[in-house]
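Have a think about this chain, tokens included, and walk me through the fold.
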Amino acid sequence: MQAIDLACRAIKPLAFVVLFVCLVAPLSARAEPSATSPCNPRLDLVRLSVPLQKVAHKLAAGEPITIVALGSSSTAGAGATSAAWSYPNRLAVELQNHFPGHAISVINRGVNGEEVPDMLKRFDSAVVASKPDLLLWQMGTNSLIRDHAMDDRGASIREGLDKARAIGADVVLIDPQFAPKVIAKPLAGKMVKYIATAAKREDVALFRRFEVMKEWTEVEHLPFNSFVIADGLHMNDWGYACMAKGLGMAIAEAAQRPIVSAKAAPISDWGYAD
């Protein structure tokens, strides 16, 4: 009996340890961050070159703000674990943090695989019909990775911008992602420069996603697999969330900035874009 009692006493602490490990270990695993680094965007990197006048007016008046995110798969949220982790949905959360209590809606109009001409075909229904105060237009990636001819893209971009201006919307262009499939293309740098030139000459804002993500690898030394999924193209939850954090910071600053921008001359030599 004494031997049995001693054995039982030895087993009880062991059972407790096993139970403790079973209960605590999963909690510890869930508590681990989903990426290798915190997301701390630099304002000087994400800052928009053009103030957002319509958004500023709506904020000052306390009126609801509608934002439309137009683009392809990286707007739709390909690579995210759920729709909640697409960049437009994460942006809505970020903007609520910047402007608590203000009604701000972000409508996701991303469609997988589209290029600028495809988006223009649905521009009236996807953008104009929602009467947005701000249009976020992501472009460039699909044309680049497909090696498509770019000579007809400029007219399509200008037509879309004219439609956005006609409804009084602010516009932010968003360039391609810095991801293995993108940077493998010889014309990646040219595409990024082209979109930046288009934004400057048309006097609309640009969110430099390519440079923001490039900093993740070259300055913060994050491996691609910490923010890009296995296909080498689409972002993961952390990537979309960090992009949205930087974009939210940029929108908030541009909407509260004194207006000093002058209208630039229209672009005369459109080369290419998405």
Summary: Strands lie at 65-71, 104-110, 134-138, 170-174, 205-207.
